[in-house]
Design brief:
By secondary structure, the protein is an alpha/beta fold. 43% of the residues lie in helices and 16% in strands. The strands form six sheets. The chain has a seven-stranded parallel beta sheet with strand order 3-2-1-6-7-8-9, sandwiched between helices. Helix 7 runs antiparallel to helix 8. It is globular, with a radius of gyration of 32 Å.
Length: 915
């Protein structure tokens, strides 16, 4: 470090390392190594194994002290952070014993005569240094106040004080030495940026390969998860021919196929990485920094609620070094396309990798008295700013301006690959560009949604359709050519997006006024609109000519070429088309229609144009929903109560039965008619009872009977069946409702069922009792479900949520809206739930129900958010296919509704001029 500094006395550094993971210990190694090379003593306070340090530093100036003063993020499994457990563990580790920790650390720092304290993100170390009168500095790319702020908002406000305590601890630092790939860190006001901290290589690629017996013609992937998913079995067919996989962290008992090689526990990972062709693992500072430094393509799998990840991912993808693998494909061994894609990458990081040396120099200089900060603020001022910025950070749960929109809207469990018809394009999108290069966005934000990017690319490729081979007739050829010139690329185009929905609770009770809980799914419909006169549109001319050839008049024509929301699956493909179309048309004409009003208009289209007697929940969810939240709405007619967070430990899936569903089908309509008939019969019974009560007691009943009269009055004018409570239904009306009634008999006695979108067939028998009972009890079940979502995390909570789903499913069946396929799927969930494997360990799946209009379509499943649940869902898919021959589409994840998306106003970029 230079001759002048070497003449000064050796320093004693106390270096605190977080218990979050190996990545922190490995970067501390490099900084500590350079401090020791400069002649200083370094006392490392860590929970990491000794070999992480001693394998790289063999010096008597290195001292290791095994103490853990924070816990980091507690992981439910290898790829999922448990937010509530993280907060509770931190409280147990660092908050409850805080006084004794501070007293112990102050004494220890004085005992070693520490000159300087360095913290790799351990908050209490900064406060202990201040109490001991010793300066301190943090070296990190994230801080726990940022990470835990989102956990507090999502998992428990009673832990809010943790965030402020951490910010206060950090405020005692002299400054922050900030590493690349950093998060917002509001507690630090003085910042010095340094290059990547990367461990040096000990051996060259050829030397490592020779020791492992691997030839240069073999492709090698290093599997680096820092601990693998429990019970995960690696299979030979996971790797393409000619590939080998080097496995880090494998247990001694784990048996590996011949094309997988188990590495020693103390294997020096940087050398192995440099000898490999790509890496498969999870994102962390250590893996990302070293992958970039060694220009190693990195196939990564997302971690749920690992809030440091989006910033590291941004850096990785900026330097063209990353490929995201969908978790489902990791588990099922669908590795080939990702490995092949990784081989086409050319990582281009050109920045420095000597961050350890630079940071060590800054630490030494600061300890010797050099002032690196230009505008040093007082401690109270820094603390006040930290609290203000921390509060701003928490205004929107889990979000900050620096977090990429595409990441915030991406899904956390199994990623983009859903098994739906869009799976191939979604997979390709995840491996390609992340910004629409063909269009200039003049208004709006595509929010980084991969399906929107895909739509824009297909839009840009319209003019290539004319060159596509086709076997269709002459009319279709002309229309394909017309489609190639569909848009005037010199004028604005308006694009809207609306997702389908998964009916979590509520279903067919919406038309009876129930509370419903609906989640917008990832799959969505996109619509592009441009205002143009019909006379200038060739596609319109061809459609008109075809109509005239058939003897038809000039009627409007809408032809849907494709939609990403599969039809007939019970996930509201029609609502997504309606909402997206109306949103785009409104945007093109400058109409400002609120999401709620737009949904109501779309319902009118469905009811009065299409002729399907659906409720409004589908359109409301598609228009008003938000990603990863349940839209809570009382359908009287459409009162949005708000958005309900899905707790982090809970996940919902949709599994398609393969049986086509339609709300326009006779079964759905007859059940709806039966429910409305039931309401009219209840009103009639209540009116009769009310008259009898008044006759018996005179015109003014006594006080004890007044409440009963008021109830009868309300029930005699019942507007929505769901306003009748289950106990009143059972006490007063259940036995008086007929099991079924002939349409003609009902009309003779009650005149009309007063449903504006259905018509009674006088020759048909309608089930009344079950159709009326379902929405009354469903409304109660939905309210209970909503309340349970906010209750304490426990198996009892999950079991109760699942039981409510099962009850709903069998109530559908009582109404005649079940199907063999959906019943089979629910039965498979039950078998999985009650299997010996689930009983012996922690349960994962808890309940399932048919959704939407019933009679087929999709089943909603609820379970624990874990890898085991993902594996069980895949097993259900396999068993269903084995029994029926049909592989179900899996609906996983969520995306924003049309209101949140808004609209895009785009224009085609001009092609570059030819020289």
């Amino acid at each position: 470090m230079g001759t002048e500094e070497s003449k000064k006395r050796p320093l004693v550094f106390a270096y605190y390392v977080t218990g979050h993971g190996f990545g922190h210990a490995t970067r501390v190694v490099e900084v500590a190594r350079n401090l020791i090379l400069a002649g200083h003593d370094v006392h490392v306070v860590t929970g990491a194994p000794d070999f992480v340090f001693t394998s790289e530093i063999q010096s008597p100036r290195l001292f290791l002290r095994k103490v853990l003063l924070d816990c980091g993020a507690v992981q439910a499994d290898a790829l999922t952070v448990d937010r509530l457990a993280s907060l509770e563990k931190y409280s147990e580790t660092a908050v409850v014993p805080r006084a004794s920790i501070l007293a112990t650390e102050v004494l220890w720092l004085k005992s070693i005569k520490a000159d300087f304290v360095v913290s790799d993100v351990v908050p209490v170390a900064c406060r202990a240094a201040a109490d001991a009168g010793i300066p301190s500095v943090c070296i990190t790319n994230f801080s726990w106040d940022f990470i835990y702020a989102e956990y507090v908002m999502a998992a428990g406000n009673h832990h809010r004080s943790i965030v402020w305590q951490i910010a206060e601890d950090y405020s005692h630092c002299e400054f922050l030495i900030r590493l690349p790939g950093y998060c917002p860190m509001p507690a630090f006001r003085d910042i010095i940026d340094v290059p990547l901290v990367v461990r040096r290589l000990h051996k060259y690629r050829k030397e490592v390969r020779k020791e492992l017996g691997i030839g240069e013609d073999v492709k090698v992937v290093i599997l680096n998860f820092g601990g693998q998913p429990a019970g995960w079995k690696l299979k030979e067919e996971y790797l393409p021919t000619g590939w080998l996989c080097l496995v880090c962290g494998a247990s001694e008992s784990q048996q590996l196929p011949p094309n997988f090689i188990k590495l020693a526990k103390n294997a020096y990972t940087p050398d192995i990485m440099a000898a490999s062709d790509c890496m498969l693992g999870k994102i962390g500072y250590g893996t990302v920094s070293e992958a970039l430094a060694y220009r190693l393509p990195f196939v990564f799998v997302r971690r749920d609620y690992f809030n440091e990840e989006p910033f590291l991912r941004n850096m990785l993808e900026y330097y063209q070094g990353g490929v995201e693998m969908i978790r489902r494909d990791l588990l099922t061994g669908h590795w080939r396309p990702y490995l092949e894609r990784a081989m086409t990458l050319n990582p281009c990081y050109e920045g420095g990798t000597n961050g350890g040396e630079v940071a060590a120099r800054i630490l030494q200089d600061t300890a010797y008295g050099k002032n690196y900060t230009l505008d040093k603020l007082s401690g109270p001022r820094r603390l006040r700013d930290a609290i203000v910025l921390g509060y701003q950070l928490q205004r929107v749960p889990g979000r900050d301006l620096c977090i990429p929109d595409w990441y915030a809207n991406a899904e956390s469990e199994l990623g983009l690959r859903t098994g739906s018809p869009t799976a191939v394009t979604a997979e390709n999108n995840s491996l390609t560009d992340s910004y629409p290069q063909d269009f200039e966005i003049l208004h709006g934000d595509f929010l980084g949604l991969s399906d929107t990017l895909s739509f824009l690319k297909s839009l840009a490729g319209l003019d290539a359709l004319v060159d596509s081979p086709t076997k269709t007739g002459k009319h279709s050829i002309r229309e394909r050519k017309a489609a190639a010139g569909l848009f005037n690329w010199e004028e604005d185009i308006f694009v809207a997006r609306a997702p389908g929905r998964l009916d979590v609770m509520g279903g067919i009770a919406d038309y009876s006024g129930s509370l419903v809980l609906q989640m917008p799914i990832r799959e969505a419909c996109h619509v592009a609109v441009q205002k143009i006169h019909p006379s200038k549109q060739r596609l319109w001319k061809h459609a008109l000519a075809r109509q005239q050839a058939r003897g038809q008049g000039p009627t409007p024509v809408l032809q849907i070429v494709s939609s990403a929301v599969p039809e007939g699956k019970g996930v509201s493909s029609s609502a997504s088309v309606e909402v997206a179309s109306m949103s785009a048309i409104a945007a093109a004409h400058g109409l400002n229609i609120s999401p709620r009003e737009l949904a109501l208009l779309c319902q009118k289209v469905e009811n009065h144009v299409v002729g399907a007697p659906c409720g409004v929940m589908d359109q409301m969810t598609s228009a008003c929903g938000e990603a990863n939240k349940l839209l809570a709405m009382v359908c009287q007619p459409a009162e949005v109560l708000g958005l309900v967070d899905i707790p982090g430990h809970i996940r919902v899936w949709g599994i398609d039965s393969g049986i086509r569903h339609s709300v326009g089908g006779a079964d759905y309509g007859s059940v709806r008619i039966g429910a409305f008939m039931g309401r009219e019969i209840v009103k009639s019974i209540a009116s009769t009872l009310l008259s009898e009560s008044r006759l018996a007691n005179g015109s003014s009943p006594d006080e004890s009977e007044e409440g009963g009269v008021e109830l009868l009055e309300a029930e005699a004018s019942l507007d929505y069946l769901c306003n009748l409570s289950p106990h009143r239904y059972e006490a007063m009306y259940a036995k008086m409702l007929p099991e079924s009634i002939l349409g003609e008999s009902f009309v003779e006695k009650y005149t009309d069922h007063r449903d504006p979108v259905t018509t009674i067939d006088k020759t048909r028998n309608y089930g009344v009792r079950a159709a009326a009972r379902h929405p009354i009890y469903e409304n109660f079940r939905v309210k209970a479900f909503k309340a349970l979502l906010t209750s304490a995390t426990s198996d009892d909570q999950l079991n109760a949520l699942g039981e409510l789903l099962y009850q709903c499913h069998y109530s559908y069946g009582d109404c005649g809206l079940g199907s063999d396929g959906t019943n089979r799927l629910v039965q498979l969930v039950q078998e999985m739930q009650h299997s010996k494997a689930s009983k012996s360990g922690e349960g994962t799946l808890y309940g399932a129900k048919i959704t939407g209009g019933g009679s087929g379509g999709t089943v909603c499943v609820i379970g624990r958010n874990s890898l085991k649940s993902s594996e069980q869902i895949l097993e259900i898919q396999r068993r269903y296919k084995a029994a029926t021959g049909y592989l179900p589409i899996l609906f996983e994840g969520s995306s924003p509704g049309a209101g949140k998306f808004g609209y895009l106003r785009i224009r085609r970029r001009s092609p570059p001029k030819q020289n």
